[in-house]
Amino acid sequence: MGRVVSLGSINVDHVRRASDAELASLAERYDWFPRQGQTVRVETLPDEFAPDTDEITHGGKGANQAVAAAAAGATTTMLGVVGTDHERFGVRPALTDAGVDADRVGVADAPTGAAYVFVDPSGDNRIVVNPGANAAVDDAYVDAHYDAVRDADCLLLQNEIPAEPVAALLDDLAAESTRPTVILDPAPPAGVDPLLGRDAVDYLTPNEGEYAALADALDAYDGVVVRKRGGDPLIVTAGDDRFTVDPPTVDPADTTGAGDVLNGYLAARLAASASLRDAVETAVVAGSMATRTAGARAGIPTLDEVRAFRTE
Question: Residue 217 belongs to a domain with what CATH number?
Answer without folding.
Answer: 3.40.1190.20
